[in-house]
Amino acid sequence: MDHAQSRRRWLWVVGIAAVLIAVLAISLGVLRSAFSGIAQQPDPSDPAWSLVNMPDVVGDEASEAHEKLTALGLVPLYAGGEEAEVLADAWTIYAQDLPAGQLADAGTHVILKVSEPWLQATTPLEAEAPEICDDQGRVQHQTGYQVDWPNALHWSNTESDRVWLRYDATIDDRPVLVDCVIGPSPVEVAVLQWDTAPR
Predict the structure, then answer these.
(1) What angle do CA 118, 55, 111 make, to 5 degrees?
(2) Strands 188-196 and 174-182
(3) pLDDT, tens digit, for every residue of 59-109?
(4) PROSITE patterns recorded for this chain (predicted)?
């Protein structure tokens, strides 16, 4: 009888110990997961967390680039410096000054150049357009562009036969200042500027 009671007592001790070990193991696992999750949270005071890895947005429509860059904490700015969202699919990114894969800190400006299909299809300068030189030796043309953008300023460098065009536009009901160069090579439209957001 004493032997049976001793055996039962021993089994109880083993069972309780097994339960305690299991509970302890589960608790340690939960704590480890919790602490590892906390450790992975960005710390604004740590400069390493302000670095972003620049994605490749060349060939993307502006809305696609917008999603990629804002997901990394980048804020879109137009050339005029006004914050705005880039949602118009007519804009296509053709160049970026920060190479894909390069790390940039929170103070870095990322310049994206965009092209617009409807600009590439625009008729060239009118041969009979009057030419008026400005004080920098550039030639100001009165062209068909002024029909569409009466506030546009555009000049041609007589040496390169390229036209520089600046005009006001509206995207998503927000005013935008657009600079572009039109010439024998593909249309260059600059710039959409992206800056890092505070974390």
Answers:
(1) 55
(2) antiparallel
(3) 887 778 778 877 777 765 544 333 334 444 556 777 777 888 888 775 566
(4) PASTA (PS51178)
Sign of CA dihedral 62, 66, 68, 72: positive
DSSP class of residue 196 equals E
Count of positions (residues) in the chain: 199
Q: Show the tokens assigned to 87.
A: 């949602």
Give me the half-sphere count of Cα atoms (radius 13 Å) on the Cβ side of residue 163. 25
User: Residue 91 carries which side chain, given as an amino acid letter?
Assistant: W
Is residue 142 within 8 A of residue 165, CB to CB? The reply is: no
* Ramachandran category for residue 148: left, alpha or beta (phi over 0 → left; psi -120 to 50 → alpha): alpha
Residue holding tokens 């007592």? 9
